[in-house]
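Following the same procedure, backbone shapes were mapped to integers, yielding the entry below.
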Amino acid sequence: MKGLHYVRRRTKAGINWHVYAWRGGPKIAYRQGGGKPVLTAGEMRQAIAEVEKVNVPESVSLNSLIRDWEKSPEWAALGTGTKKTWGSQLKQITARWGNTPLTVWNDARMKAKVVAWRDNRANKPRGADLGVMVLRELLKFGLLRGRVLANVAVGIPTLYRGGKRAEIVWTDEDIERFSAEAKRQDRLHVFDGLRLCALTGLRREDLVTVTFDDVYDHAIVKRALKVSRGKRRTATMPRIPELDALLEELRTRERQKGVRTLLVNSRGVPWSGDGFGGSFNRIRDAAKIMHLDPDTGEQRRKHLHDVRGTYATRLILAELTDSEVAEVMGWSVEKVSGIRRTYVDQSRVIVAIGERISRSGVNASVNR
């Protein structure tokens, strides 16, 4: 652990060693005789605890690394929604670790501290996992810049176990119930967003920012706001008849002068991501649209993001391969295969069985 201060003193009785958490800091160990002492695990923990009690110079603290990250090209490349979500986690990282010197993060035993921090937030497992992930990205930035020598947040398992969201889709019944509730609340402009998502697979931030200028003769071409796998993707959605019909409807919506977004709110102006998300969730909750886990019986709310799975099923039914669908969606082939097994292949099997039974019934009646 860098930063420890060793003092060797010769006395009449021999050589004594005094070890301090830092130069001028509290003493954490004492040895009589021998060479430079090796600290025990308990003494190392005490050293880290002492460091965490005090404010260290801003220039050598984790706060300085956070500040530099937020000014970096890497941070600038993140989408608006990602910056907001990660920023809230950085505030918690700052509150817990901001004053620690960067040298502390070179010690592998800090991993246990990070795990303990994660465990203390286990009542909200997704938030706890996200905090570790953001810390890992922060230290990755520090490692790249030579500010730290290790990334102790790598390899920490996640707590959240309910996360196979790519295999959750909105069914036709879900969409019909959402439509009925949107009509009841006179909020059809929110239903417009659900329909557009189901026909394009766009993420929320792209959904509310796509414009008529992105609509070409045969496709909608939208440069994604979110960076995926280190790149900013360009999403291309073919103009199928259902999408063309929706686009014609959206052109008739009342909108303020100069507004070019496909979706507008009740005031005729573009949605914000949070504004649309909140309105969407209120209608979803009123319509009681849930996903029932067939294995555990657990019920979970279906999210706007899950509507992308509905678009994936359309691509599968259009006879695209799993790898082609994965490329369009920015997903793994395994996730697409899961949707195919759960929502497409099973449905086709059931339909085929029904047709066979129907034919068998007809034949039986003829024979009689």
About this structure: The CA atoms of residues 293 and 320 lie 27 Å apart. Residues 333-367 form the longest helix (35 residues). Residues 1-54 form one domain. The chain has three domains: 1-54, 55-161, 168-309.
